[in-house]
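Narrative summary of target 7.
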Amino acid sequence: MIHKYNVISLYTAKIGRIAFCCALILSLSSLTQIGEAVPSGQLAYAVNGFDENLGRFDWNLYTTAIKGTNNLKALSLNHKGMYPAWGRDGELLYFIQWHGGQADVYSIVPESPKNKKRITQISGTYRFLAVSPNGKKLAFNGWTMEQLPQDNQIWVLDTESGEMEVMTQVPHFGWPYSFWGLSWSPNGKKLAFSLSRPGWLEHLYILDIETKEIEILTELNKDYYPVWSPDGQRILFFRWNREFDTFCTIDVETKVIDTLFDVDKATGYWADWSPEGDYMIYSRWGTVYLYHFESGETEELVEIDGSVFVISWLRDIRILPVEPQKKLVTTWANIKHK
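Modeled conformation, tokenized:
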């Protein structure tokens, strides 16, 4: 009896160890999945706040390191500017700065932002800056100092040569048309943009960089601030309504529009996709929020003293993303390479 009892005890202990190991593996797998789901990277944005040196409100550039949603802080870059846009892998941060009634595009090294470099050789009135995925081209709209506001068009600048090329020939008929956002496709071959047309409507368009052909995406609405998704399949945009505004996405191929959620009117909303495409970052006045597409949940990230203007989200290149597998554990051999 004693012998049988010991055998049963050993068998029970063995089963217990196996169950413990399985539970440990499952817990590690859960932790891995949670770690993968945590948003991370760098946010860059402009803030309209009071400048004590100038004695008035002015635009200033800020960044925020994001890993999860705890203890996020706004870090001033000590540069005045608008429309911040990350260069490839975050080696540079581009922005537009006004001086003496004219604007130019500049770049700084985010980790050492003391010095800035002028990118545009011709000054003008420029807005809505966007950097191509390979970092070699900049897109913006506007007109040069030698032109009139009616000549407002989309330009593409080569960062190596500094040459600027007009990409659109929108007829103005004596009226200055306004662009309301620019965004590169992930393959760098197209630009999504919003343009106001007669009747005070803003439509979404896609510009082919090589052929310069323009395709219309939306009509009969006020749609603006397009942002291309990382997978290239959808475009996030903002639709104006009389009583409220709505964040929407449109399928690039089918043109099917999905509504996300309604927001208050005239409260300064700006948005960008997370680098993996599962989250959206957006601002409401001086507060930055995180929206999860799958769950539909929204979480407040950081609050800034001022009004946020344009948000650009850069993936944290120091964190290697792990490719999810349909098994309990993920090994280092499955890490994605750039």
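The chain has two domains: 1-37, 41-314.
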